Amino acid sequence: MYKSIIRPILFKFDPESVHHFTFSMIKFLHQIPGLPTLIKKKYRIEDKRLEREVFGLKFKNPVGLAAGLDKDAKIYSELENFGFGFIEIGTITPKPQDGNPKKRLFRLKEDKGIINRMGFNNGGIEAAIDRLKKNKGTLIGGNIGKNKMTPNEEAVEDYTVCFEALYPYVDYFVVNVSSPNTPNLRELQDKEPLTQLLTTLQQLNLQKDKPKPILLKIAPDLTDTQLLDIIEIVQSSHIAGVIATNTTISRENLISENKKETGGLSGKPLTKRSTEVIRFLSEKSNQAFPIIGVGGIHSPEDALEKLAAGASLIQIYTGFIYEGPELVKKINKALLKG
């Protein structure tokens, strides 16, 4: 029904407008007595065999929602009802910011991809915390970044502010230095600034009574040499793991009319490269740390490929948009078949 009726209608309208409309509809439907139970019954698979324990956390199943969809933690509990094992919110910055000028979100229908240049648009850390205080058991990852106006030399302070404020309300953290849509942000992936940033956050983390996993989200556009640096940095800073990968700036082999738009590309064009990065990190590190695999998962086969390459967990976003909520259930069913 989603792919044959709902998606064709939604795809006739502006992607960002559809995003807000869909959020409103999901929120509305969950206010109808009995409907949340029906949604859970349709999409959730409760089975002990799906449970995973990774970096000290217990996940109901290994299929999560990637950051970017629920930036401001507005409907995380409702989204969990569609079968996700965990929800990652953000990217959140210390202060609210509008992001880049519209139009900034583009479908690449023929390629089953999306290009976005949103620019960390979000309501800021305090607004997100107000909503997270109402969490009733959803496993939450907090994806954090710096404000656009904060120079890279002061970036550590922004990440520290987010870490300290969000600490009581999320289960794990994701340090996002790999979005292509904030000027110069990817420069923080260089060895020296990245080591300083992660070491600082981990030192703060270890001062807590219960340290929480800190993950690094990396770009798919890194070279093998840079990926080897990432392995070294993760191990030297003692953070928990890596999310591979963010969106790409590559436009190789695209056929859709929007292919020349600037921004980060997600979806099917990213499937192969993100799996390559996962396999490289897993093999070269001797599986020294967990990897969350994300990028171009549009089918159970894509998900199983990521896990076989070395991912401990996976996340979807663009696949959720193109394939619908049934995708989460299909992946979990495929995992049970083994």
From TrEMBL:
Pathway: Pyrimidine metabolism; UMP biosynthesis via de novo pathway; orotate from (S)-dihydroorotate (quinone route): step 1/1
Amino-acid positions noted as binding FMN in the UniProt annotation, renumbered to this chain: 67-71, 91, 143, 176, 217, 245, 267, 296, 317-318
Superkingdom of this protein's organism: Bacteria
Domain Dihydroorotate dehydrogenase catalytic: 50-335
Catalytic reaction equation(s): (S)-dihydroorotate + a quinone = orotate + a quinol
Residues annotated to bind substrate: 71, 116-120, 176, 181, 246-247
The UniProt record lists the keyword Membrane: yes
Subcellular location: Cell membrane; Membrane
Cofactor binding description: Binds 1 FMN per subunit.
Principal subcellular localisation of the protein: membrane
Keywords: Cell membrane, Flavoprotein, FMN, Membrane, Oxidoreductase, Pyrimidine biosynthesis
Entry annotation: catalytic residues: 179 (nucleophile)
UniProt cofactor(s): FMN
Membrane topology category: Peripheral membrane protein
EC number, as in UniProt: 1.3.5.2
GO terms of molecular function: dihydroorotate dehydrogenase (quinone) activity
Function: Catalyzes the conversion of dihydroorotate to orotate with quinone as electron acceptor.
Subunit structure: Monomer.
Family recorded in the similarity comment: Belongs to the dihydroorotate dehydrogenase family. Type 2 subfamily.
Protein name: Dihydroorotate dehydrogenase (quinone)
Lineage: Bacteria, Pseudomonadati, Bacteroidota, Flavobacteriia, Flavobacteriales
